[in-house]
Amino acid sequence: MKFWTYNKGKVRLDIQAGERITIESNEQTEEGYSASCVTFELSECGQWLTREIETDARDCDGRLESYKSDIAAAGSVNEYGFLVWRSQESWQRDQYAELMNY
Q: What is the value of pTM for the model shown?
C-alpha cells in the first residue's frame, strides 16, 4: 500500500501487509529539545493502517509529552490524496501545568 504523509515535507511511503515503519526526529531547541516518533503498521490482511505519534519535548517550563493513535482504512483518501484518519486514543502531559495544579 502506498500513501502520503508529512515528515518535514510531503513524503510517499510504501508499506506491505504486516509491516511496520517508524520515522523518528530529534532536534535541539533554544530552550531544550524536541523529539517525535511516528509509527505506521499495516494489518496482516492489508485493510487497516494504524498510526501512532509520540512526542517528547523539554523547555524552560519543563517536560511536554503527547501520544495519539489513529486508524485508516486502506484506500480511504481525501481530495488531496491523504488518508482519512480516525482517532483511536490520545493523551498529553505538561509537567509545568501539573506542578501548577491545572
A: 0.86
* Measured torsion, CA atoms of residues 78, 26, 40, 76, in degrees rounded to the nearest 10: 0
Question: From start to end of the chain, where are the E strands?
Answer: 2-6, 10-14, 20-28, 33-42, 48-59, 62-73, 86-94
- The answer to whether the CB of 59 falls within 8 A of the CB of 28 is no
CA pair distance 86, 28, nearest whole angstrom: 31
Residues 59, 74: Cα–Cα separation, whole Å: 38
Model pLDDT, residue 62:
85
Q: CA 68 to CA 87: how far, in whole Å? A: 8
What is the distance between the alpha carbons of residues 90 and 61, in angstroms, rounded to a whole number?
22
